[in-house]
Design a protein that fits this description.
By secondary structure, this protein is α+β, with helices and mostly antiparallel strands. It is built from 2 helices and 3 strands, in the order H-E-E-E-H. The model has no long low-confidence stretch (mean pLDDT about 90).
Length: about 70
């Protein structure tokens, strides 16, 4: 399955198996922080975790997670 993802990414950087702790939003970018102490600066982020985990990440980031409370 990982090769399929890489084929579809078409030049995008994808970080698999990377646990995100929180995000910070800047005027022109986002910074993603991981449990491994890594940071990634990017323009867009796709979180592919179950809604309860995404809600926790958004809440720790000070972002509105209320839509995920209904899931």
């Amino acid at each position: 399955p990982h090769q399929w993802i890489k084929d579809k990414a078409n030049g995008l950087k994808i970080h698999l198996m990377t646990e995100v702790t929180h995000l910070t939003i800047h005027p022109t970018s986002l910074v993603v922080f991981t449990t491994q102490g890594q940071t990634f600066e990017c323009k867009k982020v796709i979180l592919t975790v179950p809604a309860p985990q995404a809600k926790k990440i958004l809440e720790r980031s000070g972002l509105d997670a209320s839509p995920l409370g209904q899931v």
